[in-house]
Amino acid sequence: MLRSLAPAPGRAPDPLPLGRALRARWPGPPWSRPLELHLPAHGRGRGLAPDLAALLRQPPGSWDLPELPAIGGLLEPVGAVADAQRACAELLGAERCWFGVNGASGLLQAALLALAPPGSRVLLPRNLHRSLLHGCVLGQLRPVLFNLPFDPASGLWRPPDAPWLERVLAAALAQGPLAAVVLVSPTYQGFSADLVALTPLVHAAGLPLLVDQAHGGGEALAAGADLVVLSCQKAGGGLAQSAALLAQGPRHEPAAIARSLLWLQTSSPSALLLASAEAALRHAGSPAGRVRRRRAEAVAARLKRRCAGLGLPLLRNHDPLRLVLHTAALGINGLQADRWLLERGVIAELPEPGALTFCLGEVPPPGVARRLPRALAALVRQQGGDPLAPFSPPPLPLVAEPELALDRAWRAPALAVSLAEAAGHLAAEPLCPYPPGIPLLVPGERIDAARAAWLAAEALRWPGQIADTVKVVAS
């Protein structure tokens, strides 16, 4: 069992609980320490970009600096930040690069607002991160949500292929013009879309393509995407909240992006987070970074071979450093598996009803290829059984727009009703099991009987994650 950081009963509360938690160190020998397979990808500093690690060894106050003339800022044409952004753009094959200090979330919002004027419709996948919904509220945009292929064996959405996206675009454009299209690739679980096939379809419709590539490394640029958002902590050696927005081609206005960044980014960006973005991106594209990546992938390959040898079912994906255990095939809910493993010192990144995702990181934990298969085999022995029944896909149309404007529904007076009573009501807030913050329900959507029944079934599969009530717009 992981040791609690809470004070013992009868003792006074810790005056600095967060500081104490961050300073805590596992007291036992290395082999007894938790197996941490979660984000950030640097794994408690093991995989930090070397230049960033060197910076963090200096006294913290020495690099906590404002936008001095020599340093500059995100939107300044001269200074160290401007030079770093230009260098990273060249390295990644982009025309422009902007660093972000509010994570990929803030840059997705800025990109969306730059592409779409108020009142316009934007085409978004159902597996969008909730930050894009927040961007729609901020920009007074109309989200048009499109359904995705669904795998009943795992309960996971899959990326669309070209015929699927063709049908989506035709259905969405039949209902009115669009300002932009967003795709997510790779997904949290490491599933990638064929962007080389999908991007021309978007461009043929006369639309710009924004790719949420927070879990990738910028590959969408080579496929022709117009705007690409990266997270330096999800797939690189940077700190949380450091991110980058890459741009190319004629389907965006740099001035509009700069304006959106001015609206959404702090006027006092952390110099450390800016340096984190620079160091992570530069290291990933360096010979040393590529060597480290190959070493991590070799560990991952060895780990997956051992899992296969033990009969542990893994879902095939496109990211070698994301291991996805197909818990449903073992007769185990992924959330149940996560709790069981957590009590035994194995910390996964993403539990879902049919799967459990582990992030190996840029420098996988020592002994992971031995320790994780052993823990998973014990899980199967103690918790496994007959495979779970196939998952039912959400009863959604191919393309749908909220019946009530997103911002109006989210701001409207609301009341809580049981899922059994939700049919016929308009949702007043998103329903997002966390992580990864992907909404099963969007404000302004009408909840019909089939959707209400599906949500009730999902609540049973997400114990502790989905309440038995939902907020609806008060009539």
Low-confidence stretches: 1-5
Sheet with most strands:
8 strands, mixed
CATH topology of the largest domain: Aspartate Aminotransferase, domain 2
Give the termini separation: 48 Å
Strand content: 5-15%
Shape: globular
Rg over alpha carbons = 23 Å
Secondary structure category: alpha/beta
**In CATH, what is the class of the largest domain?**
Alpha Beta
Helix run count: 14
Number of strands: 17
CATH superfamily of the largest domain: Type I PLP-dependent aspartate aminotransferase-like (Major domain)
> Helical amount among residues, as a percent range?
25-40%
List the domain count as a whole number.
3
> Looking across the biggest beta sheet, what order are the strands in?
2-10-9-8-7-3-4-15
Named CATH architecture of the largest domain: 3-Layer(aba) Sandwich
> What number is the mean pLDDT?
93
Summarize the SSE layout with pairings:
Elements: H1 17-23, E1 35-36, H2 50-56, H3 80-92, E2 96-100, H4 103-115, E3 121-125, H5 130-139, E4 142-146, E5 150-151, E6 156-157, H6 162-174, E7 180-184, H7 195-204, E8 209-212, E9 227-231, E10 243-247, H8 254-264, H9 271-284, H10 287-309, E11 322-325, H11 334-342, E12 346-347, E13 350-352, E14 355-359, H12 368-383, E15 399-400, H13 406-411, E16 414-418, H14 449-461, E17 469-473
Parallel strand pairs: 1-12, 3-4, 3-7, 7-8, 8-9
Antiparallel strand pairs: 2-10, 4-15, 5-6, 9-10, 11-14, 13-14, 16-17
Helix pairs in contact: 2-9, 3-9, 4-5, 4-8, 6-7, 10-12
